[in-house]
Design goal:
Blueprint lengths: L3 H19 L10 E9 L5 H16 L3 E6 L27 E6 L12 E3 L9 E4 H11 L3 H18 L16 H8 L7 H10 L27
Parallel strand pairs: 1-2, 1-3, 3-5
Antiparallel strand pairs: 4-5
């Protein structure tokens, strides 16, 4: 049986490897930028779980040099309601300087089967990210993991698609498509992260999504759904 010291050494080695994979050493830091996110909880997520998940998402973005400013409006504004899937030819200017996450339940299993949610990086109205919280709960039971861990990583993954402006996935790291139990074990250790190229791309476009007194966003078009799979 491995001793606690051996386990600590293994975890330390994995952390170094994760830092190398992201192209960022522990001594490198990025100037902090702020991203405003509105969360509409339509799923009735327990307040403690939602707060812990938000902290987990914020932790993942701190490595990018992004500080998340969370908003939890009591009512959904007209601009944040609905789903924007219009084609590029019909897009309208987007005056919002924030991103929108909507947490939902009871999504039919025929919709994006096996996925924890989806993102619409180019939405001009409605949610940019939708998370299926009942699927999050089901996965936590399968993994014997906390809901905050799964929800926090799911939100970070889908927000990554929005900031990257892409539905593409990677073979590893936070932006991989299919997460195995081994992936989630690494996530528990804090070893599933954005890579350096993703960090640089997100920081380049972040001014488009800053608070209301910042620059207006560029023209964008609709992309396909980006799914975080819960497949084993």
């Amino acid at each position: 049986m491995n001793s606690p010291l051996q386990i600590a050494r293994i975890v330390g080695t994995l952390a170094v490897l994760a830092g190398s994979a992201s192209g960022k050493t522990e001594h490198e830091t990025y100037p902090e930028q702020t991203l405003c996110i509105r969360v509409y909880d339509k799923a009735g997520v327990p307040a403690i779980a939602l707060e812990a998940a938000s902290m987990e998402t914020a932790r993942l973005f701190r490595a990018v040099g992004i500080r998340i400013s969370w908003e939890h409006p009591s009512t959904e504004s007209a601009q944040d309601g609905g789903t924007d899937m219009t084609a590029a030819a019909f897009r309208q200017p987007n005056d919002r300087k924030y991103l929108v996450i909507r947490l939902m339940r009871r999504i039919p299993t025929t919709i994006a089967p096996g996925a924890l949610g989806y993102s619409l990086p180019f939405a001009r109205r409605g949610a940019h990210v939708v998370i299926f919280y009942d699927r999050v709960e089901a996965l936590t039971r399968t993994l014997n993991a906390s809901a905050s861990l799964v929800l926090g990583h799911a939100m970070a993954h889908e927000l990554g698609h929005v900031l990257l402006g892409s539905s593409e996935h990677t073979r590893g790291g936070l932006m991989q498509a299919r997460w195995t139990p081994a992936t989630w074990r690494l996530a528990l250790l804090g070893l599933v992260v954005f890579d350096r190229a993703e960090i640089e791309r997100m920081r380049a476009v972040l001014p488009e999504f800053k608070l209301a007194d910042q620059a207006s966003p560029r023209e964008r078009v609709l992309t396909s759904f980006a799914l975080l799979s819960s497949s084993k």
